[in-house]
Amino acid sequence: MTEGAPLRLSHPADDTGSAEFTGAMVRLFAEHPSGVPFAAIEEFGWFELAAESPGLAVSAMFSAQGAALGAGATLEALVAHVARDFDGTPDWRDAAVLVEAGDRGFALACGERMPSVLVAPSPSGGGMLVLGSARLDPVRSIDDSVGLVEVAERGEGRPIDGEADLGSLTAIGLALQLGGLSERLLGIGRDYALLREQFGRPIGAFQAVQHLLADAAVGVAAAESAGTAAVRALEDPARLRLAALVAAGAASRAATTTTRAVQQVLGAIGYTREHEFHRFLYRARLLCRLLDSATLDSRIAEAALAAGVAPVEPTSAWFEQDEGAA
Amino acid sequence: MTTAPSPSTAHTGLREALAAWLPDHLDEGLALVHEAHRPRPALEYVAAQKALHSWLFEHGWLGMGWAAEYGGSGGDAMTRAAVYDLLGLAGLPVPTTVNSIEVLAPALVGYAPELAARYLPGLMAGAEAWCQGFSEPEAGSDLASLRTRAVLDGDEWVIDGQKIWSTRAYGSTRCVVLARTGSQESRNRGLSLILVDMDTPGVVCRPIADLAGTEHFGEIFFEGVRVPADRLIGEVDRGWEVAQYALQWERGMFGWIRQAAMLVLLRELADRLPEGSRPAFGAAYQDVAALRLRSLATIEALNAGRSSGPQVSIDKLLLSTAERSVQDLLDAVRPVAIDDRAEDWETRLYDYLHSRSAPIYGGSEEIQRGIVASQILELRGRR
């Protein structure tokens, strides 16, 4: 039987410890069903790993969160990691990062505790503000397993001394979550196609079902590549924005294709609360809304045009990376 | 002629070397590119492709990434990937004769190093063009059912049969033929790969007029064609394995070459992009980005010898998606159906029509989805 086996969407690679670390993070999310607090991410040793291999740490944390439908101060951890050398950063245990989605601003609360400060992009661009007097109101969403607050008033703030593109960082975190979610959901759909029999054979034997899931696999693979490229761009401000938007676009596409395909494969049981599918759909829709997915194509066009339609990742990026690895 | 960049400048030095070389050579290169990509009859087309190829070879760009014994100047597949990308983005896309190097040369080097040393230098230099003889009239998607036979007679193979849909066949110097050496029932376990000169007595090639107005592919007839026994690539009855290896390179490197060309098409559109086409532009850019990132990962895996096969079917699906969305966008902004009296109308019309072949060539989208489903998702087939 191959049920539950991992999907081999990419070429085999050397073991970097990524699977083991992702597994450990999945357990961390499971231990904190109402959200992994910032302090627990610190205790876990994530910041030490992030200092050593940032790509692995960032990818694993958010993919695990997506796959586990977890909640927690992960965006805050990412921003804290990037802003580690900046002056004036807040006490991250009390802080939340602003996610701008269209003309509304949100933050993800962790557990029962409301954040007391908000970290937001500086209106002048290229930097962050700590807003001590922001007014945050809880807001209902499609996914009540996530504590979501809306920023009603931003209030007064003080700047953090350092450059960081907060919008791109949150987009990468959310995109990686959406990618991890889509990959796990694809696995659920695949397993069900092997298990469920109709007309005397598993429905996965039918070409129509196979092609639905194959298209989802293509979307998930593209999201994985774009997410990896965006994480590689974390160190390169010149191409961070385009890489982050492309990752968000690829992940939104993957989530849309995969939720559609897997719901179709599941049939009626997927429309019930008895099957876990609904939790994936709710979270996927919430993440897409936070990424303002409906406007991503236009925003990607804008960013690509501003960059002279340069490649999302230039050859020089991977050569430098090769040399770094050598 | 400028000194060729040395392979020791491979990787980081390449960009600087190209930037230094380009100003004095761009106009000449653009003229050759224009000739090479103009839609025209098969023989003229191959000649123009070879002219661009040899020019790039003489200037040291092509041949980089291959060992000296095969006519190259050293380096590896990553060097080639960088060269194709940098040239492509500079507006000098490599000719399609490079595609056959990328598909066939790794297989030759890996499975028949003696043949590689003997014949690859001519291919590298652009003196020759090669083609692939895989598909047959009754063996398209079901390639393993092919019927062209090769029988060993003394120290010669005798080949009889017919190949079709061979890209750039008419005008090619040699053809890599996938032929049946085992029983018909042996399917993919009874096939062998043989290098055949197109001027061998008994080989007849005919160009096929395609819907893009060119003669992109041809059909090849083999009647009692005698080929030396040492023209075998790999082992007898193991040709399928070699062909699969070749196809992996096709998926990786061909997709990679195409993404650079498509980025240039998007860049050229930027100045005349209407506001309303921005979302379509962003969508097309994402399609090209996905192809870029994915095909590069495949080249890296192939270069490191850790490609495992079915994953390249995902790349092929991303390729045909990108080809279609880029050309549909270009057509929406500058419709090709009626001559708009622009200088590039004929080329645009050709590019649009040619993009319709992407979901079919090299294994149709349906075949690729089937491979993803059965070999990656491990869904059971019919029983």
Overall description:
The complex is a heterodimer of chains A (326) and B (383). Chain A is α+β, with helices and mostly antiparallel strands. Chain A has a domain at 166-319: Butyryl-CoA Dehydrogenase, subunit A, domain 3 (Up-down Bundle). Chain A has eleven helices and ten strands. Chain A has helices spanning 18-31, 38-44, 46-52, 54-68, 74-82, 166-195, 207-232, 237-266, 277-290, 296-306, 315-325, and strands at 95-97, 99-101, 104-109, 117-121, 128-131, 135-138, 147-153, 157-160, 197-198, 201-202. In chain A, helix 7 (207-232) packs antiparallel against helix 8 and helix 8 runs antiparallel to helix 10. With 383 residues, chain B is of the alpha+beta class. Chain B has helices at residues 12-37, 42-58, 77-89, 97-111, 113-124, 239-269, 278-303, 312-333, 345-355, 365-376, and strands at residues 62-65, 130-133, 149-153, 156-167, 174-180, 191-197, 203-208, 217-228, 232-233. A four-stranded mixed β-sheet of chain B has the order 2-5-6-9. In chain B, strands 3-4-8-7 form a four-stranded antiparallel β-sheet, with no helix packed on it. The longest helix of chain B has 31 residues, at 239-269. The relative contact order of chain B is 0.10. Chains A and B meet through helix 6, strand 10, helix 7, helix 8 and helix 10 of A and helix 1, helix 3, helix 6, helix 7 and helix 8 of B.
Please mark out the parts of chain A with pLDDT under 50 across 5 or more consecutive residues, or reply none: 321-326
Number of strands of chain A: 10
If you compute it from the alpha carbons, what radius of gyration of chain B comes out, rounded to the nearest whole angstrom? 21 Å
CATH topology of the domain at 166-319 in chain A: Butyryl-CoA Dehydrogenase, subunit A, domain 3
Series of H and E elements of chain B = HHEHHHEEEEEEEEHHHHH
Cross-sheet strand order for the largest sheet of chain A: 1-4-5-8
CATH H-level homologous superfamily name of the domain at 166-319 in chain A? Butyryl-CoA Dehydrogenase, subunit A, domain 3
Low-confidence sequence ranges of chain B: 1-10
Quantity of strands of chain B, as a count: 9
Average pLDDT, all residues of chain B:
94
Percent strand of chain A equals 5-15%
Work out the oligomeric state of the chains in this entry: heterodimer
CATH architecture of the domain at 166-319 in chain A: Up-down Bundle
Order of helices and strands of chain A: HHHHHEEEEEEEEHEEHHHHH
Rounded to the nearest angstrom, the radius of gyration of chain A is 20 Å
The CATH C-level class name of the domain at 166-319 in chain A: Mainly Alpha
Q: Total helix count of chain B?
A: 10
Gross morphology of chain B? globular
Helix content of chain B: 40-55%
Number of helices of chain A: 11
